[in-house]
Automatic annotation (TrEMBL):
Enzyme category, top tier: transferase
Name recorded for this polypeptide: Porphobilinogen deaminase
Porphobilinogen deaminase N-terminal domain boundaries: 3-219
Cofactor: dipyrromethane
S-(dipyrrolylmethanemethyl)cysteine PTM sites in chain numbering: 263
Subunit: Monomer.
Gene transcribed to yield this protein: hemC1
Function noted in UniProt: Tetrapolymerization of the monopyrrole PBG into the hydroxymethylbilane pre-uroporphyrinogen in several discrete steps.
Protein family according to the UniProt entry: Belongs to the HMBS family.
EC code: 2.5.1.61
Domain Porphobilinogen deaminase C-terminal, chain residue ranges per copy: 247-319
Keywords from the UniProt entry: Porphyrin biosynthesis, Transferase
Catalytic activity: 4 porphobilinogen + H2O = hydroxymethylbilane + 4 NH4(+)
Lineage: Bacteria, Bacillati, Actinomycetota, Actinomycetes, Micrococcales
Keyword Transferase listed: yes
Length: 332
């Protein structure tokens, strides 16, 4: 049996999918092949938030699964909509890597060192809002493109192919903000000038995590459920699942779902287990950075139900503190 693994064709997607494929093959003892799937997010241009957000990277892969064109799909979990996909299951959440965002700036600058009115690029409303809250004087530029394209907007970064200033294309920004996880997976941490700690910038829900999705009939069975499979693929998927990562992202995604937060809503969330407790912190920001609502909660309910309830509880607290008044939570 050859297991077909669906992936986007970007450098980052191919890298993280190949790493997952290698792990599945090693655990399951079966051959694997990658199936390239082109998504709307790879084809359309313009602002990501105006195209339907990160969900545009997921729909085509899910369709390929449902059409039996692949057996497994690998996503960045932060791209996965919180709503359930009929016929599909989140089969595994491998161990999470660094959740932080990073600054990649010219001349080795850190966030505090950037000059007034420095031009900082990001395609994320969450990052933009938290940057403006930390440094209201910055000029935030909406950018698109793969990792190399974004890094190419900052002069002097290692690996850049040109030092020519071309507005909107190359060497025209003072810095960009990206996810540490993506840079780590493709071996580009050499471009990082500062890791932005979570007290400055909370990550997107699920950031640093992968989501391995498959048809529900092929997924590892959940306790008390008759759905699922006990075949070799499901056993391999179960072996890749990291329970602490699943608890954390379950809490983060439950918070988003209760907030009814769209893909362009400026919401950050980070959950982690510490001993017998699961902690969750979240922030909702005004897009212009002038107002934020931030809070945190913890639970000793170390189950998916407990994690879900934690996310809902914190979301309710944020709403009670006026989160819906300072941000358009349904933004998409």
């Amino acid at each position: 049996m050859t297991v077909r693994i669906g992936t986007r064709a970007s450098k980052l997607a191919l890298t993280q999918t190949q790493q997952t494929a290698d792990q599945l093959a090693a655990v399951g003892g079966f051959p694997v092949e990658l199936v390239h799937v082109r998504t709307d997010g790879d084809v359309l241009t313009g602002s990501l938030s105006q195209m339907g957000g990160t969900g545009v990277f997921v729909a085509a892969l899910r369709d390929a699964l449902l059409r039996d064109e692949c057996d497994v799909a690998v996503h960045s979990l932060k791209d996965l909509p919180t709503g359930a996909a009929v016929g599909l299951s989140l089969a595994a959440t491998p161990r999470r890597v660094d959740v932080r965002d990073v600054l990649c700036a010219r001349d080795g600058l850190k966030l505090a060192d950037l000059p007034a009115a420095a031009r900082v690029g990001t395609g994320s409303p969450r990052r933009a809002a938290q940057l403006r809250a930390a440094r209201p004087d910055l000029h935030i530029v909406d950018i698109r493109g793969n990792v190399d394209t974004r890094l190419g907007r900052v002069p002097g970064l290692p690996g850049n192919s040109t030092d020519q200033v071309v507005p909107g294309k190359s060497c025209d920004l003072d810095a960009v903000v990206l996810a540490a996880a993506g840079l780590e997976r493709i071996g580009r941490l050499d471009v990082v000038t500062e890791y932005l700690e979570t007290d400055v910038m909370l990550p997107a829900a699920g950031q640093g995590s992968l989501a391995i999705e498959c048809r529900t009939a092929d997924a590892p069975p959940k306790p008390g459920s008759a759905e699922g499979s006990r075949e070799v693929l499901s056993q391999a998927l179960a072996a890749l699942d990291d329970p602490d990562t699943r608890l954390a992202v379950t809490a983060e995604r439950a918070l988003l779902a209760r907030l009814e937060a769209g893909c362009a809503a400026p919401v950050g969330a980070y959950a982690y287990r510490n001993g017998s407790m699961l902690h969750l912190e979240a922030v909702v920001c005004a897009v212009d950075g002038t107002a934020t609502v931030r809070d945190k909660r913890a639970t000793d309910g170390l189950t998916e139900v407990g994690a879900t309830l934690l996310g809902i509880e914190l979301a309710e607290a944020l709403l009670a503190s006026g989160a819906a008044d300072i941000a358009d939570l349904q933004a998409s």
